[in-house]
Amino acid sequence: MLRRQARERREYLQRRAQEERLRRQQDKKERLRQALDENRLLPTELRRQALALQKELEFETPGENGVTGSQDDEYRWAGLEPPKVMVTTSRDPSSRLRVFAKELCLVIPGARRLNRGRAEVGVLVSACRAAGVTDLLVLHETRGRPDGLVLCHLPHGPTAHFTLSGAVLRHEVGGLGGAPLGAPHILLHRLDSALGRRLGTILKHLFPVPRPQTRRVVTFANEDDVILVRNHVYRRQGKTVELEEVGPRFQLRPYLIRLGTLEQGDAADVEWRWHPYTATAPKRHLLSAT
User: Fold this and answer.
1) What is the domain-level CATH number for residue 119?
2) pTM: predicted TM-score of the whole model, two decimal places
């Protein structure tokens, strides 16, 4: 088992490195094509490779992507089988965090809740990997208030860290019926930057492929770099559509993405980190292009 995991890890890293090389090569081709179309000087770093790149451009059609694989290599088989999600908490959780973990399992179809007990992170991840779990969600709290979510995709990553705020349970929303358990449609609103698309990929693959007649919608809406998570059921009344929130609701703010799994900790490479104490931090929009 250990040899198999080591081999899969090496193959995964090789695919990632190859995709990164292809992406850089394609970026150079696009810059060269733009310079030739606009009849301006070539960038300095492309002048030595200009002739070789131009020969490759002759065999490519405009708009063709030279990268054969997906940038998110971890999700290349997503959709073939429904994901297997495990939800757990930090040690000694409060009653509110337990209820929130149960309701999060209602939002994600097929998710199961695991009592953490005294299990360490390494043992937890190894057990989930051996059981074929595709995603591990760990909830954290401060004084009974849920305030953190760690999403680890198995078997090789990535691991996304979120600050969780504004958690409202289903009974606090009020006027609710039974919780629908069907696979929902996923709406990703204003997650159109490179980072936003990456987070959208991580979040949407927690859910299986929905049926066309499904009447449930889970929305991840970006508002000032905070992802609002809402769970609705919609009904058609003639030409109008009525939305009913079934909860729970909460907000996510990403601050770290690592390429490894949760037990690797600081040993895993950092793909992205939030830097709030920079001069341009108030002006930037990280999750949206506008």
Assistant:
1) 3.40.50.10480
2) 0.81
